[in-house]
Amino acid sequence: MTRRRWASLALVFVVLVMTGFQVRPQRFWGGGGWRPDPYREGLPVADNGVVDRGFTFCRLLYSSVRREQMGHGWNTDYPGSDHNFLERLEELTTTRPALWADGQPGYAVVRPMQDELFQCPFLFVSDAGTAGFSDTEVERLRLYLLKGGLIYADDFWGDWAWEHWAAQMGRIVPEFAIVDVAPGHTIMEALYRVPEVPQVPSIQFWRRTGRSRTSERGSESAEPHLRAIFDEDGRPLVVMTHNTDIADGWEREGEDDEFFYLFSPDAYALGINIVLYALTH
Asked: To 10 degrees, what angle do helices 3-18 and 257-280 make?
């Protein structure tokens, strides 16, 4: 790790500690694929058990058309990442999350064809390299993006997953190119200064490989990328973190102290930057 990297990480850590980040949520979730009861499909609205309608973390429920090692499809890192991210977003910013009647923060699952989709300013897609969309879903997601929504895709590794996801985006917004987001872009500095894209491995991979490796596909996925699709006015439509699992830094924060300190501060910093950038652009 470079001296500049250590300095930047130390700065982020100090800021997070000063704002209460050293206190973990009293109740965190873990274990990808677990579904809460009641199942949180649809948005938290007045007739669906919500008591406070603030910011909702919307996750896209899609159909997987291919498989990836260690992936679960749409519910990869769910619901722990969504739950913990909202806890931290409330702690570290002035954003007020929605709240379900049972006290859980407002994370929700939305399908492409649900009308609630258009109430989501932010749509999270996990294990994005397995997602496949029908022609009607393509039109629906295109309309969502052109109306002002933003998709954040995370946790897909290697060339095949990238090529598949890029092809899906080419169907949805073919007129706009995928570009690399350069260091120093506003996305990287919306609140926290993140000088480079952190490579966060799944905690299972990290443990299995002796807690020393972060690239889940070896040399093929050695370099993490932050990429985006912007419209003609520069508004972000899609943000993508490739060759990294940012959401595992959220989901697994309470399971291993070493993993937490190595990966969670940067994972939260970048995730919060992306959400704030989406809400302000």
From this structure: 80
